[in-house]
Amino acid sequence: MPAVHLPADQQFFADLLSGLVLNPQRLGRVWFAGTPKALPTGSLSLDFPRLEVVLRGVYGNSLETEQSAIGQGEMLFIPPRAANAPLFTRPTMVLSLVFAPAWLGLAFYDSRKGEIPAPGRKIELPHQQRGEGEAMLTALGILSRSPQDQAIIQPLVLSLLHLCRKVLNTTPGQVPSRPAFLYHSICNWLQDNYAQPLTRESVAGFFNISANHLSRLFSQQGSMSFVDYLRWVRMAKARMILQKYQLPIGDVALRCGYPDSDYFSRVFRRQFGLTPGEYRARFQ
């Protein structure tokens, strides 16, 4: 990643993220906060997804018994409108991230005395949560219902941390490079045109670039390949349709760009551990 001159707080968080994504073996289980019927005193609930990363020590969420001692390297994902009540009963350091629609918020907590601390450092950076970021956050919200699928969840959270690192390493006011602008344009276009019979070659042709150039853009600018990103977009749309509408699975598949409903069902199950029908049954 090219060297850039960043403000002190932004550089601090960029270094924290680098330490995490460059040493993924130090990251462990991802826990998920729930949605209580009433918010107890001391709990926090936002309309935005959040992620708490335990950098050192032991951190806890008093709303969930099994989350009373979240260890170093483990993480707590809080979906929109879910809640957590931080426990700082032992010395700990925590990195907290908030994914708002138009900005990324980061806060660093250092509790050396076993009490709830104020954030030692805190910043908010302009960032549109569209494209791959939106797809990953949506997927994590769904996977919160299957927290045992850590083989899927942990690599997804690592990709999300890679994306945050990229945001942090952008100089304030910096004009996006042509590759970065083109990459985000393609991501946004895929968000709107996912139902079409898209291929790497057809999308590259639409943007007047080669298929290899398209692959390089996703490799260098993003944290997913083109094929993986398109699949995540389509799966996110499929989940939304399955939650809200009682359409035949074949119709859901077509609306998400899959003319073969059997193939669609296999991809969905491989991604989330449930068939489309089993997933829809959870919302009835």
Specify the overall morphology. globular
Strand content: 15-25%
Q: In total, how many beta strands? A: 10
Helix content: 40-55%
Name the quaternary structure: single chain
Tally of helical runs: 10
> pLDDT average, as an integer?
87
End-to-end separation in angstroms reads 47 Å
In short:
The chain contains ten helices and ten strands. With 284 residues, it is of the alpha+beta class.
What brief labels describe this structure?
single chain; alpha+beta; 284 residues; 16% strand
Can you tell me about this structure?
This protein is α+β, with helices and mostly antiparallel strands and 284 residues long. It contains 10 helices and 10 strands.
Spell out the blueprint of helices and strands:
Layout: H1 8-21, E1 30-32, E2 44-45, E3 50-57, E4 60-61, E5 75-78, E6 83-84, E7 86-87, E8 92-99, E9 103-111, E10 121-126, H2 132-143, H3 150-168, H4 178-193, H5 200-206, H6 211-221, H7 226-244, H8 249-255, H9 261-272, H10 276-281
Parallel strand pairs: 1-5
Antiparallel strand pairs: 2-6, 3-5, 3-8, 4-7, 8-9, 9-10
Helix pairs in contact: 1-3, 2-3, 2-7, 4-6, 5-6, 8-9
